[in-house]
Amino acid sequence: MSKANNPLSNPTAWSPDTQLVHGGSMRSEFNETSEALFLSSGYSYPTSDHAERLFKGEIPGAHNYSRFANPTVDMFQNRMALLEGAEAARGFASGMAAVTNAVMSQVRAGDHIVASRALFGGCRFVIEDFMPRWGVSSTLVDGRDPENFARAMQPNTKVVFIETPTNPTLELVDIKAVADIAHAHGAVLIVDNVFATALWQKPLLLGADLVTYSATKHIDGQGRVLGGIVLGSKTLIEGDVHTFLRQTGATLSAFNAWVLVKGLETLPLRVRQMTDSAAKVADALAGHPKVEKVIYPHHPSHPQYDLAKAQMVRGSTLLAFEVKGGQEAAFTLSDSLAVILISNNLGDAKSIITHPRTTTHQRLTEDVRLETGVTPGLLRLSVGLEASDDLIADLMYGLDQV
Question: What is the pTM of this model?
Fold first, then answer.
């Protein structure tokens, strides 16, 4: 029996772990086992007629310029699409490039956006400050109640944008409920799925139209390169998303795409261990006399625990906790740590702690920070691959210094 008759010759039949090792691979005539790195800005054509037909779009799958098509980037896009269950994907130079493209490609002057108010500072800037410069208004709502989205919808609402879990307070938004509301009004739902990862949450299966990631985070997962990706239907991705990428040039480099492809091979191993450790850290911090509260989606104390269990397979590699004593206490704890690093990145192999009020959300007003739960004593912890016992001991020492 030939290999072609093997049911596993179809990548969609593979488990996610196998898809992330083999999915999207293309081999050259040298039959390399590791994916090839195509460091080329342009491509030559066998004839002028071939070039003409390629530029007319009559030759599918061909490449004419790496600003919007490169074989190594293709492999990353195709592998991520398999994992996500998406029809198509486009890579971008960074996570913010991906988010900005996803939003801007779906609206025109005179349109309206509804978004959850609890957003990463850069994403909130795109919705609240950047888009109005181009005639696109926005309304921000408390995303914990889907009815708030329904009340905010207008006849000209074209996009609903959410993060879930949110950065940094790990609030949840009911993806399916909000998708139903968006679609009833003819709007597109865009979900930033970075905190959950594609392993623990599937927004497209819950009704989302586009999903965005900062590939800099878990996908690379080792602090090496920047990257982003937008996934969804062929209609949306090969239409406005691709056009926007082609014209603005927020291009994912071939080298960064290659690094991200290699990162995907170990994504399940890394994310599983990081999630296991995050759950242990959350348990250790919960109830500590110097901790006001712990926020972790799959911890029973989370106010949206039932939604988290229904919507997310696991509870994320990230958690947040509020230290009693405000910013001074939070700084004292962070400055006392020997293993956990102070940095604003996340999803890394190394555990990272940050004080959102003075870093990722410092550009927001104090009223907005408090409104979204970014209090003076709040710390966001991205749990890495270190031994969980060492991380807990490090945090307990830090708390002892408060």
Answer: 0.94
